[in-house]
Design a protein that fits this description.
The complex is a heterodimer of chains A (208) and B (169). Chain A has five helices and ten strands. Chain A has 208 residues and is α+β, with helices and mostly antiparallel strands. The radius of gyration of chain A is 31 Å and the shape is elongated. The termini of chain A are far apart. By secondary structure, chain B is an alpha+beta fold. In chain B, strand 3 and strand 4 form a beta hairpin. The longest helix of chain B is centred in the first third of the chain and has 31 residues. Classes of the chains: A alpha+beta (208), B alpha+beta (169). Chains A and B meet through helix 3, strand 4 and strand 8 of A and helix 1 of B. Chain A: It holds the Pfam family Peptidase_S26.
């Protein structure tokens, strides 16, 4: 109501119309009907039109962004020391989601997955074994080697920084459905710009 | 001649404009809000597919309800099968994280559900590939990661009181 009054007063000033109004409630009767209607229409149309257009554009670009991040790829910032030296703390990388949908994730890929203990956070590790692979579950310097097989539909993830990484050696293989995307390109820092290196722990891959 | 060319161009422009508005909005809606799916199999009888192979139930999957990964015991959920990532399975939530489940048919008699996991079972015990039997014999964990893909199904029937496994909180 207050907003309406302010608009009317500024319109009156603009149009140089003198009025003697007793209360704002009688405005419709006192003012000439035609003038009031046109003012009402243009005001409302301008404000409402702008609002609807803004909302429409927001929805449209939001949906396009969702489709792009979900089905194509996006930029991700990684934090944590578990993938050093390949990916340092607060590096910015480019992740693509096409391989996940076409089931093209291979051994040696760095993937982003949903954390098995907390569905709202993501983890970034390297795929060591796919389903059916034989995995060394303890360090190779131990005398008694223990192997385990990766079950169907699961993958075995490990970070490159084996001393400081919570990965499948701790919580076991994770289902393929938790993988969100594959990281293949580093953007920041610029000194390390380019495709990502192979694993420094080559001995972990054993599919004999 | 010029007029017909101009018509084609205008049409093409309008098509692109409509395409880039309609497809992302529709895809986002189906991914984030709700979608429709057909239920196959007998593992949720009699709640879903009571007629067996003659008639498949059609259900509404409500994605919006699980956007914060909050489900209750007794909800029917749809999730990506941990054994086959191309398949989605529909089961009922029996226990949430932290609960202890007295299982039927699983190798451990009592299982505590770890953090971030839930225990699901089909209503039709014995015909259900669920938390009691996930994976091959060598499988070490049979508790499913429900946040692989989880939709809450609008329930058309009341939750069954006689669950297979008992839950201790």
């Amino acid at each position: 109501m207050l907003y309406l009054c302010i608009e009317i007063l500024t319109a009156i000033k603009r149009n140089n119309v003198q009025m003697h109004a007793t209360t704002f409630r009688n405005l419709g009767n006192i003012m000439p009907g035609q003038w009031w209607q046109s003012l009402h229409r243009t005001m409302l149309r301008g404000v409402l039109g702008k609002t609807f257009r803004l909302v429409g554009y927001t929805i449209q670009y939001g949906c396009i962004a969702h489709c792009a991040f979900e089905y194509v790829g996006g930029v991700v910032m990684c934090s944590g020391p578990s993938m050093e030296p390949t990916i340092q703390n607060s590096d910015v990388v480019f992740a693509e989601n096409l391989s996940r949908h076409f089931y093209g994730i291979q051994r040696g890929d760095i993937v982003i997955a949903k954390s098995p203990s907390d569905p709202k956070s993501n983890i970034c590790k390297r795929v060591i074994g796919l389903e059916g692979d034989k995995i060394l579950t303890n360090s190779p310097s131990d005398f008694f080697k223990s192997h385990s097989y990766v079950p169907t539909g699961h993958v075995w993830l490990e970070g490159d920084n084996l001393q400081n990484s919570t990965d499948s050696r701790y919580y076991g293989p994770i289902p393929y459905g938790l993988i969100r995307g594959r990281i293949f390109f580093k953007i920041w820092p610029l000194s390390d710009f380019g495709f990502l290196r192979d694993s420094p722990n080559g001995h972990r891959f054993s599919d004999d | 001649m010029a007029q017909s060319k101009g018509w084609v161009r205008r049409y093409f422009k309008a098509f692109c404009k409509g395409f880039f508005v309609a497809v992302p909005v529709a895809v986002t809606f189906l991914d984030r809000v709700a979608c429709v799916a057909r239920v196959e199999g007998a593992s949720m009888q009699p709640s879903l597919n009571p007629g067996g192979s003659q008639s498949s139930d059609v259900v509404l999957l409500n994605h919006w309800k699980v956007r914060n990964f909050e489900v209750q015991r007794g909800d029917i959920v749809s999730l990506v099968s941990p054994k086959n990532p191309e398949q989605k399975i529909i089961k009922r939530v029996i226990a949430l994280e932290g609960d202890i489940v007295k299982t039927m048919g699983h190798k451990n008699r009592y299982v505590k559900v770890p953090r971030g996991h839930i225990w699901v079972e089909g209503d039709h015990h014995g015909h259900s590939f669920d938390s009691n039997s996930f994976g091959p014999q060598k499988e070490t964990t049979t508790i499913v990661y429900f946040h692989a893909l989880c939709c809450h199904i609008l329930q058309f029937s009341l939750p069954q009181p006689g669950w297979n496994s008992q839950v201790f909180n």
